Amino acid sequence: MWTDRRNFLDLPPELCNWETASVVILPIPYEATTSWGTGTREGPAAIIEASRYLEWYDEELDREPYEAGVCTLPAIDLGTVGPEPAIARLRALYDDLLEAAGDRFVIGLGGEHSISSAPATAWVDRLGGDVTILQFDAHTDLRDRHHDSPWNHACVMRRVLERTRNIVSVGIRALTLEERGVIREHGIEVVFAHEMRHPGWVERAVRALGKNVYITFDVDFFDPSLMPATGTPEPGGGGWWDALDLLSRVFRERNVVGADVVELAPRRGEEASAFTAAKLAYKMIGFWSEGR
What we know:
alpha/beta, 8-stranded parallel beta sheet, globular, about 15% strand, 8 strands, Arginase, Chain A
């Protein structure tokens, strides 16, 4: 039985064990390439701690999503090796987890955004490319190299792009001229943050998605007024209901195969950000389980 004493939502044993749970929480406290604020290694533990104070009842869904069972795995220790072998190790571990998990829904908790290339490409390979990567983010993360590394957190979607062009990005408001060229060259669907001020952006994003979707959610998608505890905050971000409007549509109309929530860098005395990230993960569990 895979469980963790500090489990997501602080569930009793019968609701958080591997044998009966439909949802798996995978903490990945990896941090090696952050380029400004640090602390993402503490993100998973902070999210799990904050989740203990969530109300289990979801008034929007009129149900208690935890009843699906949520198993929290022990945190993955990727050691002190360089970023490339660390991500390769994570990919191997994630492949093994998917084999064991069957039809369980796996949510990874980061950790810096570089970890997301492992589950995203695992699903690309698993489904023969028939999956869209839906990226919530302030940044495109399409640099080929950053700080002399192709495995920097600012390069994560470029590594994904090497395996699939099926990428939809929302909330973008910080990118380089080179990255703009990559978007145009590969036909990536991007909903920029300034476009979210006008009606129709949710429909546009959903329309660009294929049947199967993997979600990577960098919490700097949110405006810093809502999510200050992140390493590279950008003004003008999305709001809570912006995120839920799109997520609810995606979970309702597409087959969401997995997700991650990354880049929380918790700050002492500012618990709202960790609570927001925890509630975001719980909303995803609710949306997923509603369709089951």
